[in-house]
Amino acid sequence: MSLVIIGTIAYDAIETPFGKTDKIVGGAATFAGLAATYLYRPVKLIGVVGGDFGDENLNILKSRGIDMEGVQVKEGQKSFFWSGRYHNDMNSRDTLVTELNVLADFDPVIPATYQDCEYLLLGNLTPQVQLTTLARLQHKPKLVVLDTMNFWMDTALDDLQKVLRQVDVLAINDAEARQLAGEYTLVKAAEKILTMGPRYLIIKKGEHGALLFGDGQVFSAPALPLADVFDPTGAGDSFAGGFIGYLANVGTITFHNMKNAVIFGSALASFCVEKFGTERLQELDQTQIRQRIAQFTALSQFEIGY
Amino acid sequence: MSLVIIGTIAYDAIETPFGKTDKIVGGAATFAGLAATYLYRPVKLIGVVGGDFGDENLNILKSRGIDMEGVQVKEGQKSFFWSGRYHNDMNSRDTLVTELNVLADFDPVIPATYQDCEYLLLGNLTPQVQLTTLARLQHKPKLVVLDTMNFWMDTALDDLQKVLRQVDVLAINDAEARQLAGEYTLVKAAEKILTMGPRYLIIKKGEHGALLFGDGQVFSAPALPLADVFDPTGAGDSFAGGFIGYLANVGTITFHNMKNAVIFGSALASFCVEKFGTERLQELDQTQIRQRIAQFTALSQFEIGY
């Protein structure tokens, strides 16, 4: 039994009001994978990089015990590259460069040792590749979580809808939920999206936390108020990794556990933004995570005898 | 001992995507006063209306048991009038008309029977009038809550800063907190504002809930996800009324009670927006409020054994 994550493994170059990086390691599977390892093992990755990626970069993932058998290395080719600049509010950004490179014709290979997959995270990626991954798994996983974005709603909606019909949980942000449903209020958007396939919907609202809909219930998770957000890149992916990692850890899918998974996802995301790239997610320990969970508890729990 | 509320008592004309009203009863003191009555009595109002206000409108307040001795009726003059149009997102609005009328030279009179004031809400109004009110109270109240807005930061910042030095709690929205502090992140803005006078700061974030800062702690309250917001007018005032009403009810100022007060404020605000104007706040009962509090609890409470 394992947790399998498919998504991009990339080079990012990031500019924020706090500074600027050269090419550093990024990608949806990278952030989600690192985050998940703090809650569950084994974590097995599916992805593709170019020969330019370098062993020291692959080691960032390997040293957290991540199984890389499903990560193809295409010698003589270049890794997916994304470059972006965050605005002063850190909530919006401009994409400066997107070079698909090895991602352009990515054909996911699923090693035999990954067929024990019980928890599957379809990280942000072409819906077609997500569909192929689902088709190549011999057994339906116990839980499939999908993280996607507006780009695929604009360019590959039919495929995305096919993916949606096969997943248990969808995680998107508020603007994307409005776009996908064609409804302005999030309650109505959620109602509509929950008829498209997923049993649970998570709406990520950045600094305003997240909403979880499903089983006729709603849960509102806070975001940790931070004095400085250093680099928001990968926060959504870290959320998804923490979320599915927690559920793989407890092993039972209930609304109660889903709520806690959203808190763990939020906690991992709150670490991610404290430093550039994957830096913070490489150096966490269980004590820090326990303390962060306690902060979320203090932040949002109250007791009314009424 | 009593809860005294000063603020506007007004005519509003409102346009929303759901419809349009003629002149209906509005004003900060109106909404806050009605909301507070569900948690504490007596509630005593200070304000001014014109002869055009009409007994049936004053009765909306009187029938909830509100003491109106401090409300001056200026015969032959017109009441404060505000008209606004909400955009489709219901989070932004255009002011169409503002006629100060009787508010232009409002000189607050504090009846002798109001000098037992223990809880004072300075509703949104000219800082100069708020200062006069504070000066005319013979005893410092146990708790002073200030609700204000960006308009006074733009036009009367010196006076507003004098008010700030005399209040215990400030309630403003996120954009106003950023403006007042000159800081973008809310954590830094809160730190700065808490050096300006108030011991506690509430940052209202509309559909994203509210943050409470003070005593070195932070609390994040959710907003109830609503399928339809019918008319947001008065939501902030209802929040302030419910907030101070709860604290007057429990009688002890602790962070624990402040947190609960934010939840009660949020609950009263969530009722307010369900109908036009004061309609919903006139017809509540304790069972509905208890159920709403239970909804807030279910919405945001979790249990992690970690």
UniProtKB/TrEMBL annotation, chains A, B:
Keywords: Kinase, Transferase. GO terms for molecular function: kinase activity. GO terms for cellular component: cytosol. It comes from the Bacteria. Residues 4-279 form the Carbohydrate kinase PfkB domain. InterPro entries: Carboh/pur_kinase_PfkB_CS, PfkB_dom, Ribokinase-like. This is Sugar or nucleoside kinase, ribokinase family. It comes from Parapedobacter composti.
